[in-house]
Structures are given as structure tokens and as C-alpha cells.
Amino acid sequence: SFGSSSAAFLEKMGHDFLLFQKEKRRKRVKSRLLIGKSSYHTLKSAGAYAECRFIPDRYLAPTTTWVYQNSVAIVIWSATPLITLIRSKEVAHAYRSHFEILWQSATKSA
Q1: How is residue 31 annotated by DSSP?
Q2: What is the CA radius of gyration of the chain?
Q3: Residue 46: what pLDDT?
Q4: Nearest-angstrom CA–CA distance, 83 and 88
Q5: Which of 7, 17, 21, 51 has its CA 20 to 30 A from that of 27?
Q6: What secondary structure letter does DSSP report for 78?
Q7: Average pLDDT in the chain
Q8: Which helix (H) or strand (E) holds 73?
Q9: Smallest Cα–Cα separation from 53: which of 37, 72, 65, 73?
Q10: Quick one: which of 50, 58, 56 has its CA closest to 106?
Q11: Residue 103 — φ and ψ, nearest 5°?
Q12: DSSP code of 50?
């Protein structure tokens, strides 16, 4: 799985974020995450289980996007989080391609 995120996931989900990371570690789910440089220490100290690369904070939005199998989940971290799930091989492929471009241009250290 892979996606992009800000620290909003941790801020809004708290305990559930920790459970999610623990389950990923237990199942050895490998993931890659694009995050803002300012979110690194917050997410790592909270136990984020992912390989991270960094993009400038000015490109962050209050959203998280996960791409897995033939699905794309987009989470909007508003007062009441809103999730849009798209199940489409073509859309997942398009998001994967976009992610790969961003991954290659992102920096490896915060």
C-alpha cells in the first residue's frame, strides 16, 4: 500500500492510528508514504510503520490518500472525516503512476 498524508491522520484518529500501525507491523504490510517534512517527527514518534519520503509542506492538504489493490481511498480530515472509496483498476493505476512520479522527486530525509 502507499499514499500521502499529513499528521492530520494521527491528530484526528489518535488511538485508532496506533492500532492501524500495529496491525500493519503484525501483518508485515509494506507501505510507502509521502509526507511533509514538518510531519516526520510526529508520525515517527507515534510509531508510523512505513517507508517515508518528504515533500515541501506547502504542497500538503488536510487529506490522506491510500492506494491498494484496485482501490483508492481519499480521506478528508474535516471535523467529521469523510472517506471516498473508488474501486477501479484504471483509477488505481492512474494514482499509482502519479505516486511514483512524486516518490521519485521526493527527498529521502526530513
Answers
A1: -
A2: 13
A3: 60
A4: 16
A5: 7
A6: S
A7: 83
A8: strand 71-76
A9: 37
A10: 56
A11: -60, -45
A12: S
